[in-house]
Write a structure and sequence with these properties.
Keywords: NAD, Oxidoreductase. The protein has 318 residues and is an alpha/beta fold. It has eleven helices and twelve strands. The protein has a seven-stranded parallel β-sheet with strand order 8-7-6-9-10-11-12. Strands 2-1-3-4-5 form a five-stranded parallel β-sheet, covered by helices on one side. Helix 10 links the parallel strand 10 and strand 11. The longest helix has 19 residues.
Length: 318
């Protein structure tokens, strides 16, 4: 099969991807193309499978009526950056790497909480033998609300239970989920999380979550919680977040995803000592490429055998 390989964002090194894929035993008989090559139109038209993303080539291939593209292996869980309407309309299938992010993101979230509660972030900024003025907090007996009870949210909840935390989960229907003490539906969530000490967003960006965390949401919170976002930046109205921090509706924020990205250096968020920002790296770890490639290899092998995508096929709504 003809396979196009692209680095979806700057966190991925295409040369490293190329070296690993050219040596992978499951790909030896495939014809690999890479987005840094000067590919002809005939070569682009011949692509059967895409792994990763390229903001110019992938939409161009999908839009071309002469393409023979059969499926796409995303290297992320979120797929909102793909032209999904066109992919669905053309009957192109997709798979994600869902599952491999759970551990690194959960560990990052735990670090974010401890960084704020134990004043580690502030002490790093002070850079002298000086105790921060803010109180030192512990997690025991706190209430943490997690938006999203999938693999990422569940792993976060599991880790937090070790600290004797009361964990509330928010999902679409309010169905029960392992490691959560209570769960509520999105429509009931504001009342359910009003007294939370920490609020974590791990949801993908879909119409129901777009700009969900806004002025109306923040204004109903009663305990000045820590707000953490490891989901998508578009779920938060950034100006409303800034106002909520300035008005002390939130005690602090730790943010791995922003809107827009890259996030402007002139934003007041960078100057707030109660705000931690990382450049969308919570999911990264040293074995990311290998684990993603194993998912792709399994899907490719199964697809060539019987036309199925064995791992994490996206089920588009009809």
């Amino acid at each position: 099969m003809n396979i196009l390989v692209g680095a979806p964002n700057p966190n991925f090194d295409l040369q490293v991807m190329k070296a690993k894929m050219l040596k992978h035993p499951g790909l030896m008989k495939e014809h690999l193309y890479f987005t840094d090559q000067n590919l002809s139109q005939a070569e682009l038209d011949s692509i059967d499978v895409i792994i990763g993303y390229d903001s110019k080539l992938v939409p161009a291939i999908i839009d071309n009526p002469n393409n023979r593209l059969k499926w796409i292996q995303s290297l992320s869980v979120g797929i909102d950056y793909f032209p999904l309407d066109e992919i669905k309309a053309r009957g192109i299938r997709m798979a994600t790497v869902k599952g491999i992010h759970s551990e690194p993101i959960a560990e990052t979230v735990l670090g974010m909480i401890l960084g704020q509660y134990r004043n580690l972030n502030r002490m790093a900024r002070i850079r002298s033998w000086q105790k921060p003025a803010n109180p030192f907090k512990i997690l025991a007996d706190r209430t943490v609300a997690i938006y999203g009870t999938g693999s990422i949210g569940t792993r976060i909840a599991e880790m937090l239970k070790v600290f004797d935390v009361n964990v509330i989960g928010i999902n679409h229907s309010g169905h029960a989920a392992k490691h959560f003490d209570e769960t509520f539906a999105m429509q009931q969530s504001v009342d359910a999380v009003a007294n939370a000490d920490v609020i974590i967003n791990s949801l993908p960006l879909i119409p129901d979550t777009d700009k969900f965390f806004n002025h109306d949401f923040f204004s109903q919170l009663k305990r000045q919680p820590l707000f953490i976002n490891v989901g998508r930046g578009g779920s938060v109205v950034t100006d409303d977040l800034i106002a909520s921090l300035e008005q002390h509706q939130l005690s602090a924020a730790s943010l791995d995803v922003m809107d827009p990205e890259p996030y402007p250096s002139n934003s007041p968020l960078w100057q707030m000592d109660n705000v931690f920002i990382s450049p969308h790296i919570a999911s990264l770890f040293d074995q990311y490429g290998e684990q993603a490639l194993e998912i792709f290899s399994k899907n490719l092998r199964e697809y060539e055998y019987d036309g199925s995508l064995l791992v994490n096929e996206v089920q588009f709504k009809s």
